[in-house]
Design goal:
224 residues, mainly alpha, 12 helices
């Protein structure tokens, strides 16, 4: 039987995920379009870079909160864990391709953290630490990739320790999230600064560094 609860929650998840807290803060505080500054991403990290680190805190909190809330709401509605994760993933899709910003948003990492935290607080903490372990070396994107690759593995092999009842549903849902993280990095127009790169080099840079070129400073400052 067709599940209208999933459809309705999915639509709500996408719309809530589309609320661009980072863009709104940048407009209110500095009067700028965040998509034209820094990394160009509509997320907390770009707020910290382009506005202030303090203003990034409420943005990060809101983005985590919407992922956490939607998975909790899906569980309250009686959906199985896999479908709870799909609801959370739809919120991430909304964040990445928001209807309110002509489908040009952020990377959805904070919202994804919220989804993971709602499923397993311990796993959420582990993934957060793994993601930011490489931040001091300016390799946050690589840390995030490693952390999200580990998600389905942890949930499949360590469900009891992590407090996950449905290891299969969790692993399948986290595989969908991993696919989304990778696709968000790869599927975007080639930037002017990366026009001379080979497809192989462009692919590797986007997959590992989440940018067209290896130089972080040149990438961040390309729109200045």
């Amino acid at each position: 039987m067709f599940d209208w609860i999933f459809v309705k929650l999915g639509a709500f998840a996408y719309l809530l995920g589309s609320v661009p807290a980072a863009y709104i803060v940048a407009r209110m505080v500095k009067g700028i379009d965040l998509r034209k500054h820094g990394s160009g991403n509509v997320g907390a990290s770009n707020v910290a870079r382009s506005i202030s680190k303090w203003m990034a805190v409420p943005v990060f909190t809101f983005d985590i909160g919407k992922g956490y809330f939607l998975v909790w709401l899906a569980g309250l509605a009686g959906l199985d864990l896999f479908y709870q994760l799909l609801i959370g993933t739809l919120a991430v899709i909304g964040h990445n391709w928001p209807v309110f910003l002509k489908f040009n948003g952020g990377r959805g990492i904070a919202t994804s953290f919220g989804v993971v935290l709602s499923v397993s607080p311990l796993l959420g903490i582990i993934v957060f630490i793994m993601s930011y372990a490489l931040a001091p070396f300016k390799q946050l994107a690589l840390g995030v990739l490693i952390a999200f690759i580990s998600l389905p593995l942890f949930s499949w092999f360590l469900p009891g320790i992590l407090g996950i009842d449905d290891s299969g549903g969790a692993a399948a849902g986290f595989l969908v999230m991993l696919f989304l993280v990778i696709m968000r990095r790869l599927v975007q127009p080639r930037s002017e600064i990366g026009r001379d790169l080979s497809l192989a080099e462009l692919f590797l840079n986007r997959l590992v560094f989440d940018r067209d070129i290896r130089s972080r400073d040149a990438w961040v400052n390309r729109q200045s």
